[in-house]
Specification:
Layout: E1 2-9, H1 12-22, E2 31-35, H2 42-52, E3 67-70, E4 76-80, H3 87-92, H4 95-100, E5 104-108, H5 114-117, E6 122-128, E7 135-142, H6 144-147, H7 151-158, E8 170-171
Parallel strand pairs: 2-5, 2-6, 4-5
Antiparallel strand pairs: 1-7, 1-8, 3-4, 6-7
């Protein structure tokens, strides 16, 4: 069972607003998989999400450290799987410990973690729009725990302020 909402953003601030819109939907044990090309705005979206959960420190990409932890409510572990080449390396990160401890895990290059977490996750696909600054963002709820929160997805699509795409939520 899946549900999806889409939006377009024209500025980094609007992409951060989408992240902030996702934040109230999150709870302990949730996984957010971010999928998209280099420079599409994955870290920018995480900046808005972490700030909306009360994070006060700068949010940067964990490309070389693999993970950053933010003392938010719930706690966020932000991981970047770009450098990992095998599923076992994802398993070795022990993200289950973060989830079991009441945290939220946000995964850049989330397609690498889909075999482990994709059945019950929020999948956010970011892509390039028609201009250099425009981004397309599709937010897809997967699994029973996310489908029950699907009504919030239309609000997330509208959070980009001013340029919502297909803000309707539909089964699909």
């Amino acid at each position: 069972m899946e549900s999806q909402a889409t939006a377009s953003t024209a500025t980094p601030a609007q992409t951060r607003a989408i992240g902030a819109g996702i934040a109230p939907l999150l709870g302990a044990g949730d996984v957010v998989l971010l999928v998209g090309p280099l420079g599409a705005g994955k870290t920018t979206l995480v900046q808005g999400l972490v700030a909306a959960l009360g994070g006060r420190e700068p949010v940067t990409s964990p490309t070389f450290t693999l993970a950053h932890r933010y003392p938010t409510s719930p706690p966020v572990t932000h991981v970047d799987l770009w450098r990992l080449g095998h599923l076992q390396e994802v398993v070795d990160l022990a993200l289950e410990e973060e989830l079991d401890g009441g945290g939220v895990v946000i995964v850049e290059w989330g397609e690498a973690a889909e075999p482990l977490y994709g059945a019950d996750a929020l999948v956010v696909r970011l892509g390039w729009g028609r201009t250099d600054d425009e981004r397309t963002i599709a937010v897809e709820a997967r699994g029973a725990s996310w489908i029950s929160r699907a009504a919030g997805l239309s609000a997330v699509a509208g959070a980009g302020a001013g340029t919502p795409g297909e803000a309707a939520v539909g089964e699909g």
